[in-house]
Amino acid sequence: MSFTIMKAEDYNSMSLLAAKKVIEKIKEQQNIVLGLATGSTPEGLYRELIDDHKQNGTSYRNIKTVNLDEYIGLDKTNRNSYKSFMYEKLFQYIDIPPEHTHIPNGIADDPVREAERYDKLIEQLGGVDLQILGIGHNGHIGFNEPGTSFSSRTHIVKLENSTRMANSRLFNKVDEVPSQAITMGISSILESKEILLLASGSAKAPAIKHLLSEDVSENFPASALKLHKNVTIIADSAALK
Ligand SMILES: O=P(O)(O)OC[C@H]1O[C@](O)(CO)[C@@H](O)[C@@H]1O
């Protein structure tokens, strides 16, 4: 196992450490392709990037972003779509051109073709230089649920009830959480040149413990990261207990 582990005191320091890494990378390579994640975990990172943009002027003009996933059936007019999440939490506050931001289209007529298009798009962009990831309680990365093949490319998934329950906190009721999503596959994620996995809070401790102590298995999607050479885990002390 070749993870670099950075222990942060709490959520805010995890977010700050992650932001420093992202900003450092942007300074090194201004036309970076940045892989982005949604969920509660990276929100603090996005706040730090916005603060830094305002205070230090780090520019996103030449950057391209690709998001990991999107719910099927939700578009930008729905506040729970990941398209709207990214606009609300990050894109509206930085100078990234909208045409440089890519998210799978959750309302495509043909989701399977959309998945193929998205995979090709990432390839045309030259691949992801730095991918941000969160982790689900069941070890999911992106929306790749346990049992997903490690050779999967961008594809359509049926969400587990536990994932829908976990994400229902943002919806009015669990029935409103879509039952399917489109997500970059495990193999697509592993093609990223560098990966930053973030985890915060005691609820994520069992998943992080599993990741660090158990073998590689398709039953625990995040374990695929052990097959990658450049993964940094930034976790706070509660998630590392
Ligand atoms: O950061 P959270 O909200 O705990 O979510 C963890 C993971 O679950 C997802 O939101 C999908 O359920 C991922 O996008 C995210 O990485």
Fold and architecture overview:
Pfam families: Glucosamine_iso. The chain has 241 residues and is an alpha/beta fold. The chain has one domain (4-65, 75-200, 229-236): Rossmann fold (3-Layer(aba) Sandwich), CATH 3.40.50.1360. The protein contains seven helices and ten strands. It has a seven-stranded parallel beta sheet with strand order 1-10-9-6-2-3-5, with helices on one face. A three-stranded antiparallel beta sheet has the order 4-8-7, with helices on one face. 44% of the residues are buried. 6-O-phosphono-beta-D-fructofuranose binds at residues 37-41, 69, 134, 136, 143, 163, 167.
Task: Give the key terms.
three-stranded antiparallel β-sheet; 31% helix; NagB/RpiA_transferase-like; binds 6-O-phosphono-beta-D-fructofuranose; alpha/beta; identical protein binding; 241 residues
Give the structure's gist in a few sentences.
It contains 7 helices and 10 strands. By secondary structure, the protein is α/β, with parallel strands linked by helices. Helix 2 links the parallel strand 2 and strand 3.
